[in-house]
Protein 1
Amino acid sequence: MDDRTKTLAQLTTPAVLIDLDKVERNIKRHQDYADRHGLKLRPHIKTHKLPRIAAMQLQTGAIGVTCQKVSEAEAMVAGTPEIKDVLITYNIIGAEKLDRLAALATKVKMSVVADNETVVAGLSQRFAHEARPLAVLVECDTGAHRCGVATPEDAAVLAEVIAKSPGLTFAGLMTYPPPDGAAGVQAFMAQAKALIEAKGIAVPVITSGGTPSMAKAGDAPVTTEYRAGTYVYNDRSLVARGACTWDDCALTVLATVVSVPAPDRAIIDAGSKTLTSDLLGLQGYGHVLGRDDIRIDQLSEEHGRLVSDGPIGFKVGDQVRVVPNHACVVTNMVDRLYLTKAGAIVATAPVVARGCIT
Amino acid sequence: MDDRTKTLAQLTTPAVLIDLDKVERNIKRHQDYADRHGLKLRPHIKTHKLPRIAAMQLQTGAIGVTCQKVSEAEAMVAGTPEIKDVLITYNIIGAEKLDRLAALATKVKMSVVADNETVVAGLSQRFAHEARPLAVLVECDTGAHRCGVATPEDAAVLAEVIAKSPGLTFAGLMTYPPPDGAAGVQAFMAQAKALIEAKGIAVPVITSGGTPSMAKAGDAPVTTEYRAGTYVYNDRSLVARGACTWDDCALTVLATVVSVPAPDRAIIDAGSKTLTSDLLGLQGYGHVLGRDDIRIDQLSEEHGRLVSDGPIGFKVGDQVRVVPNHACVVTNMVDRLYLTKAGAIVATAPVVARGCIT
């Protein structure tokens, strides 16, 4: 049977469902927020990994997309002509990746980041003889302590190195802040911008990101651009942070109860190979829609264990819908998604940028 | 460049490497253990997901393989003619999966498990008019509190239901015990076996499983068969349990240092999309070979953060080898693996049973 003619109850489970009505609403709401605060929006494709949803974001006002790895950018650019501007927020190292980046840069506008001179030297060597220079932003550590130069002074030094490097143009500053990090972003970026401008170098873009922090992005007015990913689907971690409601969650996992071994316990056919072990600081591995009493307290690879303080109330064969802790990682676990509108399946979509880790 | 002509240092990272010399040694060691204890070995393919390694296990003495989902069995059976006997340790529900199971059963010997009468009824209805009956084992809960009938009495009741169901034969008892659960397995299974035999029904197979418990599998002499998966590669969780050494770990993740933002911190290009968030009770997300001082204290999707109490001692571009917490889930994250012998790449292998969740 063609999956598009199936009802949800007929789908083989576990299945990852995307509610396109909610996706549309989430895209519109966040684009409106960005517009109101004078921020350009550059969605991160890591959440959906689907060219058609990137196209929806661009058609609603996004200025381009963000990818984390070269292979993600390759998959997305090949997937839709709507994508004409890609920022890869990653230090790109090694001849093979640089060659692939150069090939992409002949097709669309590419920007990347760097937080150290070794990466800048590699980019410069590769792009010195290309027709167009590569845009490079300096990644700044505004408190997340992952990548990034540690101080505004270091940012200014690296900006000047980029500006003087053959084949490169200095394109601005980038950060992935910790949650509620707007004040830190504002302080770091304003100082770095002043130091760089004092060298006679323009800072055209200052880009920050993260869906959890987006509601306060306006508190860092130095920012010109915002990168968010998860807002397109939302998930349990964002509901827990108060960023959205269950009704805003566009991605759900449809699962079947395969065993009810005790009155207070049921086992579903979605485990860590679907929901993943990501906790994001939460207890348990997801939320069963309509059942606030249930905890998903344990996952093995193909089993999810549901427990309740009262009767679990399921029988074998029942279906449940689970909002996962973290939407982005769930789309990386499956080869295809079921897209729905008004509760009916309208399409299946291969996850073209799944597994793109290089 | 053909990947087989590359040195490890030339590979695009992150890359998952499989040391075939260690695989061979691990297979031999565990087959020897099973032989010494009179246990038939039925390896779980969830760890490797590769037909060629299943073939190595079968050629060394395994009697068949274990899969968790029908789609895994389909991928493995299609991948090698060596696989002639498959046990799916899962309650199979729904017309589509039952049809696929029936198709498999025309090609190889298939067995499945059930822990409730709804599942048995579905299996019976589908197989009643097949040429060969389906072998069904009763899944028993010997302490892991996942699936399984709760008591030996319940096992005997369900065994009789299976024995009387058209299209099915009762094939024995199955359990996935908690770690160090041999005593519980022995007590439960001995009692269930006696109760079932008292009904005049034979119990040809009693199958237990799990690599962490395998060293004590001999403590449950009622067991006839053992299912283990992780032993083929081993991982950090098994080193932590004392089940193996770092030198026995056949799966490693090759990653590149992309940033050294502080003297005690480095960032690698392998994050949760490669190493996964599985903790298995451990602190941190993997072990950097040769660097006992380093903790991988934080993962995001494409970044792994390495910290040390002393100087981290890496420069950008250095490569590291990481033993992940849990090998099985890592092979589910990548489309291909690099197989090595004597430190050189001898083949790349598509992970044919990756993402098989239905």
Note: The mean pLDDT of chain B is 97.
Protein 2
Amino acid sequence: MSLDVDTQSLVGIRRDLHEHPEPGWCEFRTTAVIAERLRRLGFEVHVGPDAVELTGEERFPGEETIDRRAERAIEEGVDPDLVDRLRAGGTGVVGVLERGDGPVVGLRTDIDALDIHEAEDEDHRPAREGFRSEHAGESHACGHDGHAAIGLGVAETVAADESFDGTLKLLFQPGEEGWGGGRAMAASGHLDDVDSLLAVHLGLDLPTGTVVTGADFLTVSGFEVEFSGTSAHSAAAPHEGKNALLAASTAVQNLYAIPRHSDGETRINVGTLEAGTASNVVPGSATMSVESRGRTDELCAYVEDRMESALRGAAESHGVDVSITKRGTTISADHDPAVAGRIADAIADVEGVTDVRTHLAVPGSEDACYLIERVREHGGDGTYLLVGADLASGHHTPRFDFDENALGIAVRTLSRALAAEAAG
Amino acid sequence: MSLDVDTQSLVGIRRDLHEHPEPGWCEFRTTAVIAERLRRLGFEVHVGPDAVELTGEERFPGEETIDRRAERAIEEGVDPDLVDRLRAGGTGVVGVLERGDGPVVGLRTDIDALDIHEAEDEDHRPAREGFRSEHAGESHACGHDGHAAIGLGVAETVAADESFDGTLKLLFQPGEEGWGGGRAMAASGHLDDVDSLLAVHLGLDLPTGTVVTGADFLTVSGFEVEFSGTSAHSAAAPHEGKNALLAASTAVQNLYAIPRHSDGETRINVGTLEAGTASNVVPGSATMSVESRGRTDELCAYVEDRMESALRGAAESHGVDVSITKRGTTISADHDPAVAGRIADAIADVEGVTDVRTHLAVPGSEDACYLIERVREHGGDGTYLLVGADLASGHHTPRFDFDENALGIAVRTLSRALAAEAAG
Amino acid sequence: MSLDVDTQSLVGIRRDLHEHPEPGWCEFRTTAVIAERLRRLGFEVHVGPDAVELTGEERFPGEETIDRRAERAIEEGVDPDLVDRLRAGGTGVVGVLERGDGPVVGLRTDIDALDIHEAEDEDHRPAREGFRSEHAGESHACGHDGHAAIGLGVAETVAADESFDGTLKLLFQPGEEGWGGGRAMAASGHLDDVDSLLAVHLGLDLPTGTVVTGADFLTVSGFEVEFSGTSAHSAAAPHEGKNALLAASTAVQNLYAIPRHSDGETRINVGTLEAGTASNVVPGSATMSVESRGRTDELCAYVEDRMESALRGAAESHGVDVSITKRGTTISADHDPAVAGRIADAIADVEGVTDVRTHLAVPGSEDACYLIERVREHGGDGTYLLVGADLASGHHTPRFDFDENALGIAVRTLSRALAAEAAG
Amino acid sequence: MSLDVDTQSLVGIRRDLHEHPEPGWCEFRTTAVIAERLRRLGFEVHVGPDAVELTGEERFPGEETIDRRAERAIEEGVDPDLVDRLRAGGTGVVGVLERGDGPVVGLRTDIDALDIHEAEDEDHRPAREGFRSEHAGESHACGHDGHAAIGLGVAETVAADESFDGTLKLLFQPGEEGWGGGRAMAASGHLDDVDSLLAVHLGLDLPTGTVVTGADFLTVSGFEVEFSGTSAHSAAAPHEGKNALLAASTAVQNLYAIPRHSDGETRINVGTLEAGTASNVVPGSATMSVESRGRTDELCAYVEDRMESALRGAAESHGVDVSITKRGTTISADHDPAVAGRIADAIADVEGVTDVRTHLAVPGSEDACYLIERVREHGGDGTYLLVGADLASGHHTPRFDFDENALGIAVRTLSRALAAEAAG
């Protein structure tokens, strides 16, 4: 089995995507680039509405934002008709390569960027070496540029591997960062005949060379919260105001004070808050986005339950109304130890892999869980792999950057694992 | 009319009381000292249960505290039988002197001390000059020692004033500092035949020489608040706790954030908070005492209304219960401008009085209002006088002390005013 | 002296401005309309950069907002060249009418609208009667449309009053609502020869028919506050975050808890708060706008001092940095009782005026104080008048509307007062 | 080897201690009862100052509390001379039994009760069956009555076990509940020749029949925090106050909001808060007890670091001073997997033991860690065992009670383990 990976080419793909980051449901150029490459490698390619099926539970950027990014993609050379289709029915790509009668094996990667402005100074390698994001306020600060490059690297490797016996499905999922892309791809039907599904993430504080074959994630639920009070002139009639910002501030403090749970990890975050209209007006409204997480679905529900008390109590404290809208929940599919162990065995001697672990509880969330769940419902199984990569700065920070050597390691590891799974 | 006041004697009385401060409903020695002096001056004297009638709305110190202070009074020479009577039916004194057929005029002073430990260093005059409180943790930090001395000085002056035509009632009220003494004395019946009632306070940021003849006060309501949650081991089961201290802290912050009202002054205070049992236990209960005030009864009610929202919201925020017990309300009886003007005229040339004002809105509360209200209900009227006194430090602070020259000024002013009211 | 006011015309002007509200420094159409009318009445007219002098302490809307409103004004028929001049040098109008050798008397009105979306339902008269704001999100919710109409009504009345002996200066000030327009107009020099300056406000909880001739305002200071912490992934590395939103929430609660002051009214408001970027990121920054006020400059400084402690303490609590930028202070020029009394006498029998008061302490702020101050520095004097108007809803609320009968009363009152001042 | 345990006798001892609970450093009767029994079994007995050496880092109850409990112990029949010795030099017992030349093996149990008032109703078995605490406000709500009984049961079993070859040291440690007893017993020197030390805890959510042979604990640090501000009359001069309670409330909210750490468990608790003196006084002081914990010493230090910021920031927010006094730290000695495994093997077939686990991370803290650490410093080793017991209610709650069948299981398990360790 050949595992020769053209690292230079991987780096090239990654840097091109890095320069053109596109957040959730706006991966127009990204979708086009991936589809084009897969086609050239002989894959049967499904894009956008043929790769995902919107379920109604997705979250989308504002109309205006999507418009702007769509125009940008067209300016960057994407076919306007394709952009139109993706806008209407969703982004993302599924590539299929039939190579014999063996099992159907799948690899899911995610491809969306973040609304984070990338660091501009010379200390930041992408800036120094000229592949910094060209899109102000957006960047690949979670490494999905690398994930997409890995998917394409695996495509190339497996396409060239004559011994591969089975069907390979590569799923390039859009909108992983809280946009509900996982659910939409799970609903597409492409996973229903998959026997073994792998998913992958780079970095996550694991050094280059380390591979985890069975990662578990936190369940996460997202909420939009709106406090509605009464505006009033802050000097002339402060007593007529019902201060929505005071309610929100009370809520923020009490949300972060939700007690830890001795059964396992929990998380709470108020990611954004916006309130008020003018400095001399008692704020009559305040909106915030909140996330609860737990190591298990139960722990996440515990946080959610306490959250609701804190929100309702804050509203009552200041005589305002509160509405709580659940954006959705990303479940935490446990890995199957058998699959994790099998893959650990298969990749033990992959070049560059220095440390293999079969389990890690990751303090993050992943909607790949919906895809794995779907596969299980249809009789298959799957696991989530972590491929270590030395980082310049943590995920979701403006200076995020990773060791590109991890790209080759990931492609070799996944190609080997997929081949092994295909071989049964 | 003679207004010769024996200042030395006034200072002596004041300092003796200052050394033996007794907080509300524990004025055993104070009652005995006052009664004794009045008797010697020929007054008909009513003490304790004959001076006040408990209404059931009073607040009392703990049993143990009363015991300790009763024993102390006996050790200080008070007749044990008298102490027993006062314990059972209340403290305080009413002295009556009939001197002709003229109207019944009254003077109300208050006599209780505070639970404040008096400053001990030489910079504090009472310490330096040897009349500091002998009762650790208790002191006359509001000047009621001076008020009692003034009442006795007026007794002496009027008793010696042959031209006085009328009946003088001196009401030495117990428990003014939030204990409900005003209500109890109002209920006694002693005020029902009073035609004109004066009440007096020293200091209040007015310099020696200033007299205000019509002071208005804030309405005040007091509350005991109890949050009841669930204790739990803070490390082993923090999630099982319902944290009453977190609820109380949330409440404290939101209570002080009650909006100002553009119709007039408001106040809120959380005077005490006690919570929890041990450092490694999530606090299951918390109690606090809260006071709301307003320039008018309506403004006080506004604060109370917001207070209730803040308390209930805080409880809901943390899943605990809250009980709110109203200790009582002290109303804000408006002064009668006619009486204030009449008295201002009468005292204009009193020795030592350099500035007479007919009105001041005082940012404090006074249960003398209940006595004035009672007099009005029976066809009489009254007003509240402030007698300026330079202060070493604000009321209710450990270093409170006042210019004793104000004692003579007050006795002369009040004797003159009472004589004028008696003269019709 | 003729005081015939064409009420129908006043209402027409007011409603036209009401339909085209323009917030601070964007009063392009408003400036044009006022200038045009004054010119027709024979006034010497100074617009924009000739009416104000920017001092560098102004606050301006965002570039994009100004652009949009400038384009809108042009679409509404304003000369593009004029719009360009106003954008560059400021908005506003000064009209001068010389009518003899008498003193120079001035009237200052303000003309800017607010960023408040006007109510749309039929219960709201402007909606019902068809003169609701055509500018979404903007409205004359403080009655400056009425103020501008009053200024133009006075222009017409005085122009027609042959007995008027003196020079009339009408100052239509831009940007009163926290934008610093008062300072800029004071700096223009137009006030330096004014002997007597009047300013006016409608409504303020006074019923139609009431006029106050000496209003005092609160000193107000405005601040932009920015908390800068450290973003981090809220699930993977919450401990690496320094939460700027938690700091801001702590600050909000402690700001509103700044103690009341017994020397007089104080106010604090956090008008806006914006924090965070995404629901799964610990917020690394938060900005808010804060206002402190006091009945005197000292009381405002007291609030400011406590504010700073609360802000710095909140930052330290969460290990973040805070920067506090003072936007400016609007002073509280005390009225001159002599001027107030003189004018009260002059207007006693004006038609429609049923109640004249010489003093009111208004719980609001006004940058007219800068103009009065400037006049005083040059030897003149002035006062601030309030003209009562029944309101449908409080100032700065979406349903604000006033009794238009007040327009005629105001024009008659001010014309009479200006004539009297001109007559010496 | 005989493991016959007289369960009836164990239950008797436990219930006697349960009826006479004595919190930390007040275990006068408990010490006497244990010493007496050990002497009868032939142990060499060291009590009080001979069993512990005070290090200066202990925390003690108030003088008055100790007095009261000492008198009570004497009334309950304890020799007054012994009580005097224990008051002066500390409580606790060490019993030594030499039975051959084998290794020195030790068992540490703890014996103090808690300041928790035991439930009184019939649903609570101790009340129903007549062995409820006779000491109001104090109870064995953590099961140390059982621990002491287990120690005495082991004493009896080993004394009767002729095959036991070695020296047995039984350490009955005082003041485990935050009083620093572990440190004091470690300093005594009794552990320096111990080769293998076991410690034990009942319950902790493990069902009867389960035994854990290697428990790890959280590091915990305790702090006394005092905020010192300025009192002031809440109505007359609120602006002169520096509100220590507002500072404390701010601190409470921000302490509980200390971010979770992704490296492992952390805990924070504010166990008690006391503030203020009277309802009409701005609270000038507030004291609270705070505990930080972490799975490792580093994690505990992280919490402590954040705690300090929150406390200092809260003080600055309200212009008050804060003093932070560290009461002490209880370290988290990791168990030695070798010892845990060895003991698991030894006890596999003990009667009543149905489930043996070699490791559990307990979300609590234990100063037994100081004793194990001391043993390690001198070349020995040790481990902490958990013996499951069905509970009626959680540890540290008024309704705590445990399945007494666990007593026999514990005595058999520990006797077997000690014998095995002695056998090498």
Note: The radius of gyration of chain B is 23 Å.
Protein 3
Amino acid sequence: MRWSETYIPTLKETPAEAEIASHRLMLRAGLIRKLAAGTYSYLPLGMRSLAKVTAIIREEMEAASVREVLLPALQPAELWKRSGRWETMGPEMIRFKNRHGRDTVLGPTHEEVITDLLVGEVRSYRDLPKNLYQIQTKFRDEPRPRFGVIRSCEFLMKDAYSFDRDAEALEKRYRRMFEAYETIFKRCGLNTIPVEADTGVMGGDDSHEFMVPAGSGEDTIVQCAGCGYAASKDRAAKKLGVEIQEGVACPKCKKGMKLLPAIEVGHIFKLGTKYSAALGAAFLDEAGQSKPIIMGCYGIGVTRLLPAIIETHHDEAGILWPVSVAPYPAVIVPLKISDPAQAGLPEQVERELTEAGVECLLDDREVSAGVKMKDADLIGFPIRILLSDKTLQKNSAEVKFRGEAEATLVPLTELLQQVKKRA
Amino acid sequence: MRWSETYIPTLKETPAEAEIASHRLMLRAGLIRKLAAGTYSYLPLGMRSLAKVTAIIREEMEAASVREVLLPALQPAELWKRSGRWETMGPEMIRFKNRHGRDTVLGPTHEEVITDLLVGEVRSYRDLPKNLYQIQTKFRDEPRPRFGVIRSCEFLMKDAYSFDRDAEALEKRYRRMFEAYETIFKRCGLNTIPVEADTGVMGGDDSHEFMVPAGSGEDTIVQCAGCGYAASKDRAAKKLGVEIQEGVACPKCKKGMKLLPAIEVGHIFKLGTKYSAALGAAFLDEAGQSKPIIMGCYGIGVTRLLPAIIETHHDEAGILWPVSVAPYPAVIVPLKISDPAQAGLPEQVERELTEAGVECLLDDREVSAGVKMKDADLIGFPIRILLSDKTLQKNSAEVKFRGEAEATLVPLTELLQQVKKRA
């Protein structure tokens, strides 16, 4: 891929709107642009990283036997009235009347819709379990959208829902999803702490949040240095019955607990029968008794993963993408190649890498060496391959891994092999 | 993949809401379910075919050097006022005030947003051309949603936009997109007729629609049996200055023209400078003169492709999926296998096909042979592999291709090879 054939408007200056590192870097590296308060466009590089992240999520959901669906954003108010959330959801839920005067909701979440989807079609214990997910746009009219795509009014979410016959089956499913979440975040290069959490407006019995410790995080978690117990601040306060401060005693081992700022990237809930009972999603058990289906729901803030990764993977010069989610693992930077016989070499390297399955971007812009090097660091390609008169005199390319201090001269004959090892 | 591990609620009866074959079959085969007037949920099988179609589109867009972006659905009214479409778009555009009282549009299309995205960042003729696309949900408050996902209020669209320096470059790009469209529709198994069309509310100079001839189509095209000239009915009427009826003379060769009902699946436009001039998307040419960027836009009704395929690929028993877009190319149907030594065979065939890259569904339901065979025909898997005592006595499987009358007994040792050929 050539730089000139895509759209990467990098910025030298930090836009005034950017408050935290990820927001600043996503704008500067040309990953996103703001359309209005709380709404962002993804440009080609941002879209590529987003596609990597969603591909990882899809793989792990399929591996956990969860099947993909796609549910509408436009939802009839009637469903929300039946679940009771028409009243309990605040002004962050976008509501309007359609042209026929019907109250319509722009889905902030999909428990009602997916529960209704199974009514009358899942009838017997033999039809259970069912495990479904979607990756879809959610809408929330945030009072104070901020931090770029971390708290925005329109965002991609992966929301999965489980339908089981009893609490035991739910417990098993919940653990399987917990494991899938740990794998997903790990593959994205994220270090998450799973914490006990409140269920809030979702209802239900039990829930865990997956938190990425980061100085800029809007949430606060408490973690025990002794036994490792961790909870959201609110949950810990409720459990302990006290205001949480640094050093408060762990409810499990009584050691002192630490407060940590963090970014929430996932949240899983044991919903129980709240939605199935309200919406009539029932099944007949072996004895022919009708029972409400036991539900769980499992969310990942998909568009929030990119800023969470960047918050924990950057330096002064720019982003340090993990290879798994980099827009391109490698960038090829040709500098002042005066020998006409070598003029086609960057294109040849690009072709060879691409054919070997290494996605790479060839910086074919007519700009200075300094601009190319700075942009490569800013965007944060894991591997930078520099070709110049100097390297070509030694039949070599200069290979530098982002985040490592030293560059290495690699003979052209070994380049593909060396790069493949790390890409 | 096992049938029991996904969610395929097939229906024996035709739902009363279904007016045409594709609508009826998408409901009966468990591809979609209606949530409310004009809004549908995609179930796992529908989602798989949708994923096949979007993968084809993405491959052909990339091959045509078009790069993927993702633009917001929530759009500030201000942009639409500047383009003039705040007034010209009718009540099908969903508008509401957000919690801060700002007029907001739920995007029915994205010319304004994408044009604004380039303002101030594409500055010189050296930054052009740019070619971007997205696959994203559009919202239109249809007065009379009908035909299932053919005319719905929320649908997936692929919308691409080109930005060029002059009419000549646009013409070249337009032709390249025209070719990409022909390839995409062909790969989806669709026979399309490209027709001259009106530009309507989009504005611009020139446009073509890609139409799938189908008895249930809401649109009408005219086609000349002599020279092949084809146009939408409205366009032909304007061009000829007469009301179009069967047998009207072709404007090119004067032969009689035929009227054909058809489904519109794609529409490409030479927009010219309508949006770039209104929104200030300009570039400096070699002489340092500021000029508005010349634009084109290129739409595909992604969710409309499935019903268009089904309208043209079905029989009395159900769907006849082209392999390229089938939810699974193959279904494995085990029937009454009484020999305990053979009990694991269906699973083994499933594993071998999957490992060989043939996506297959194993019908592990405890239902009658009749139900399994009927559902296999209804869903329309291209290849049905039947395993029974009868076939196993001959160390064989019965392989039947959907739409072909005869089944063939294939030795188990040749099964993989035979299936791979057609999958």
Note: Chain A has 13 helices and 23 strands.
